[in-house]
Amino acid sequence: MDGTSDDLTGLVDQLRRDRRTDPYRGRREYSQAARDLADRCTALIAAGDAATVVPVLRKAVDRMTTALMYMDDSSGVVGDDLQQIMELYARACIAAPQNPRRLAGWLVKLECDGPGWPRIVLRDFAPALGSPGLAEVERLVADRAETADPESWIGLFAARDLREQLAEVSGDIDRHVKVLAEQLTSAVQYARIVDALRAAGRSGEAISWARRGLGEKAGWPHADQLRDTLVVLLLEEGDSEAALAVRRAEFELHPTLDAFRAWVCTAVQAGAADPTSVAVERLRQRAAEQPIYASELVDVLMAVGEDGEAWTIGRANADRLGRQRWVGLIERRSTTEPADVIEPYQDLVEEQVGESGDKHRYRRALPLLSALQAACRAAGQDDRFAAYLADFRGRHRRRPTLIKTLDGAGFRA
């Protein structure tokens, strides 16, 4: 046992970190030390020796929490290691019960006074806390909520987060929904309510909340996920007509390729008619009325294999497509009609060379020249490329860097 304790002490001591250490030094070694400790503690818990690892893991959490304040962890690797240690600590506390009120106090203090990490997951600790510990968490959170600095976002968020988690672990779905509904500040919060109701088998209420969330937070981040959940719920309830109406309404409002694909996918799931022709015709009308939608029309036309129409519309609205979409359309057209893309490639070369804000503009022009050369060759117009290259070099002969770049790539006169 002493050997085991010494072994664990040695491992956890590696998690000390001097705040004066370069933030970018030793991150890999630190992460490995945390993983070695986690592996050792996992084995001991499995062997029935959780009581030995409880204080060690507690100390590891405290040290890693502090270390992350002075370490660059932009990759999130050490943060993930810390979260794993927290999960192990919860398992150890369940296997070797601790004073529930003291555990509750530590968790609340870490959440409310800590730097924002690790994430406290009450669900993991609930068995160890039991009714007395959870009641203590609730009491402490209530005290914190009353005394929290209204200017402290972290303090207010921590208290609210713990209140929501307490409601979740209570098993009282109505309480959980009520607490979640106190802060309907994003589509994510609506989604959490919907997920809770769905898990409880209360699909009708989940559908109502999903509709409400989409009505109040349409266009917000994660609204698409909320919409997807609503469609799944409607399909599960056998209301395929309503599910398709949700998809069609979104396409009418935002006729994007993603909205089109979602509509088609839902139609397949519902065994309904393919909406492709209806969607394409509606998008044609929209683009005719508002040319800004030409790019969305091109995307959808390409997705359904209408390459000819996509090219015609794209060629007429190249300035509205955006460079990436326009280049993609040119590349696709070059495989079947290489003669059509010769002039567009020439325009792209000229635009790239003229990009004065791009110090790599000459080098970036080389792939375009290669594509232009390939298109001329495929179209049986090699002489056309030779003539263009000679003219291009002549017009830019006062740019020695460009001429040197061309020579280096083999584009000589």
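Second entry:
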Amino acid sequence: MTIPRPHRDDVLICVAGFLGGLLLWLLRLDSHPGQGLPAPRWLALVPLAAASGATLLRRTMPRTALVIGCLALTADQFLTVGSIATIGLFTDLVYAAVLYGSPADARRIPVLSEVGTAVVTVTALVVYQDAEAVLFGLVFGLITVAPAWTGISVRNHRDAAEAATLRAEQTALLAELDRTQAVTAERARMARELHDMVANHLSAIAIHSTAALSLDDPRTTRDALSVIRENSVDGLAEMRRLIGLLREGGEDAEPTASPTLSGLDALLAQARTNGASSGLEFALDDDRTPGLPLPAPVELAAYRIVQESLTNALKHASPGEVSVALAQDAKSFTVRVTSPYGDQGERPGPRAPGSGAGLVGMRERVALLDGRFESGPATAADGTKIWHVRAWLPVEEGNSSS
């Protein structure tokens, strides 16, 4: 078995204890001199050396060190003239056994020291038949009970400090995780808002700028440039509002209100202008029951879903009608947008490329509200192919928009 390397402080205790005991031995300062023991006086250095050597194991093997210390103390007291240094080293071994030993040893050693003190006191009274024999028990308690309970106190404080440090580290870790999640969520929210607010305008600009470049018709070019200018101005205003919201403190930002479903008419009117050259028509079927409250987060999500769906229709839909349908009951709000899909005739206007981020953003918005979302190709009642987007958003009572 490999003996662990002793701690530096334990080596210092070993050397200091042995040298101190050697000095006391040279000065003849024994713990109980003149008892007429047959053993030579130098024999007291053997228990001293054993107790000093045991201190090298006080941290790495505390139980073994205490056993060696007990044997050394017994030999020192009953076979030699005794050394105060050996007694001092023994008390340190008791203290170290409680402090560095196993939890079971930390519980047992104080109890054993108390029982041992009681046994020594009673035995001394029986043997010497003198009240002064109580002093034996008192001395035994000082070298066993006192260091054991001191070790208990220090160990409890150390464990409490370690537990506090662990809690602080865990709290810091949880705080960092919360901060990271909050930053990630905020970045995702900003990405959705930026995409939803600007993609519609940029898609229209891309479509009409392509038309202006590809068609050699002054009127078409002028109309396209008018649409491009309108969408550029609107997009710039949206960007300024977003930048104002993101600016630190927001002191320079003008108060802005979240878009509501009351603005769908204007949104569809803009889509009609942007999609006229592509053969697209837009219709709104609002089947909501008047007077039912709608939570602000649900209303914002519904507006953004319609906005992104119209943008996707401008980019990809075949000529035909794009339909927006709204429905609401006491428990849910439903948004459904359908657009022509597939080869249904040559689309006269140009198309803008897509990245797929719009569908991801819509799905995330619905998931944040614990709703359901589906999108993809389907077949209408008349057999034509369509692309449909449908979102079910739960309506929570008491969270209505004002």
